[in-house]
Amino acid sequence: MGWMYSPSWRTKQELVAHLAENRGGKCTVIKHSTVGNHWWAVFEWKETGRRFIVLCLLSSGREDGWGYKDMDESMGPFYYDCPLGFLKIAGEPANNNAKLWREKVIEYHANKARIRAAKPSVGDVLEVYGVEYRLTTNVGRRGWNARRVSDGVGPYRLTCAQVNQAVATKLALA
């Protein structure tokens, strides 16, 4: 199970359009969505009507164009950002791997919701890479300005990803 690249997929959008096409095969794409470089789709077998979820990892091969590696939920992929609505559309999981994977998708989205609900604010102390920082200014999409707690040195810029990870860790320890 390797990667499939083609110079005819010069952009990510061209590759996604190719993946979403119904090319007269044994399956039909019911619904699809791209999350970063993950292309998620619900497929339906034409013969049986059974549905399942597929993940295609997307990657740029530069001179080789864009490419993908596909896997379905029965393989229990270690990626959980599948849109939650796809679980309902897909019906019952095909095997235990798919069932366990779907539980992790639900857990992933619940954790994301908890992190969003636990909005950091000025004065919060968060640990990033083993160092405690006190948040001083929210700079929007660029993250937060913060000062090191141990000596007050700063400001340091913490990215949104760093702050979200620190909040998630703090919630997990609580």
Using brief descriptors, characterize the structure shown:
174 residues; alpha+beta; 29% helix
Overview of the molecule:
With 174 residues, this protein is an alpha+beta fold. Helix content is 29%, strand content 33%. The protein has helices spanning 12-20, 85-90, 96-117, 160-173, and strands spanning 4-6, 27-35, 38-45, 51-60, 66-72, 125-128, 131-138, 144-148, 156-158. Strand 2 (27-35) and strand 3 form a beta hairpin. Helix 3 packs across helix 4. The longest helix has 22 residues, at 96-117.
Instruction: Give helix % range.
Output: 25-40%
Query: For the report, how would you describe the main beta sheet?
Result: 5 strands, antiparallel
Q: What would the average pLDDT be, to the nearest integer?
A: 93
Strand line-up across the major sheet: 1-5-4-3-2
Helix-strand pattern? EHEEEEHHEEEEH
Morphology:
elongated
Name the beta content range: 25-35%
Overall SS class: alpha+beta
Radius of gyration: 21 Å
**Secondary structure: number of strands:** 9
Helical segment count: 4
The low-confidence runs, each spanning 5 or more residues with pLDDT under 50, are: none
In angstroms, what separates the terminal alpha carbons?
A: 41 Å
